[in-house]
Specification:
mainly alpha, 3 helices
Length: about 90
């Protein structure tokens, strides 16, 4: 049972990492003005998923922490770029 739970957590973490990489690409296209709609829904969905996985096995803590940090770094960047975009 514990092994199955760890595999499920591993899968969720891998999915979130994949979603984050996809979101990064979507924002790159948005800021290059190749798409007109900000991927805000995908950003909010990923943020909610990251919040839900707060209590997990210690083995997963490091990987999830890396994903959270990467998301937060890009989130701050996107907010700054949006402000600049709105100013121009």
């Amino acid at each position: 049972m514990i092994v199955e739970e760890e595999q499920t957590v591993d899968q969720k973490i891998n999915e979130m990492e994949s979603e984050l990489n996809k979101l990064i690409r979507q924002y790159e296209l948005f800021f290059k003005r190749e798409t007109k709609i900000e991927p805000l829904t995908a950003r909010q969905t990923l943020q909610r998923r990251l919040m839900k996985l707060k209590t997990i096995h210690q083995r997963h803590t490091f990987k999830l922490g890396q994903i959270r940090q990467k998301f937060q770094t890009y989130s701050n960047l996107w907010d700054r770029q949006l402000q600049e975009l709105l100013k121009s």
